[in-house]
Amino acid sequence: MDEQLKQKIESLIQSSKVFLFIKGTPEFPQCGFSAKVVQILQELNIEFTSFNILSDEAVRKGVKDYANWPTIPQLYINGKFIGGCDIVTELAHSGELKKLADQ
Amino acid sequence: MLNQIRQKLELAFPNSKVEVIDTSAGHEEHNSPGAHIAVLIVWEGFKNKSLVEQHQMVYNTLKDELKEDIHALNVKTKVE
Lengths: 103, 80
What we know:
The complex is a heterodimer of chains A (103) and B (80). With 103 residues, chain A is an alpha+beta fold. Chain A is built from five helices and four strands; from the N terminus they run H-E-H-E-H-E-E-H-H. Chain B is of the alpha+beta class and 80 residues long. Chain B has one domain: 2-Layer Sandwich (GMP Synthetase, Chain A, domain 3), CATH 3.30.300. Helices cover 34% and strands 25% of the residues of chain B. Chains A and B meet through strand 4 and helix 4 of A and helix 2 and strand 3 of B.
């Protein structure tokens, strides 16, 4: 991956304790999976920053390679890749997600 | 399509229990049947692997389908 793109992705991920790549915005998610993760974070009162990958084709492709993860959304906490919609849902149900966000 | 996905998963995860469900119902207006898929894989080999690693293995197995046929994929993995 292009070094500049990698740096851009890393600086995004590190810009906030909880960082989310989604399609659309938290107010207007453009995909059901993105909407679900936004809803989970909001319900758990977990503050997050997001990036709309539809606004940047290079980032859209880049984040998939960066995490070795073919789909969006992608959640990062403390710079660590947590997972996509299914994993976030599972971790929310088990209580693990809130713990990770509070660490 | 569903059978093809099931066969690929059973081959990739030997002796696993695989369920493939078409969840396209409710999305008829913007999708063809088979485009929304949910898979459940129960496999001993997932032991000691993180959830991210488990799902990566599933995505990797279905990477061709993800590029073309599958529009939305739900994944659930379990060790037993």
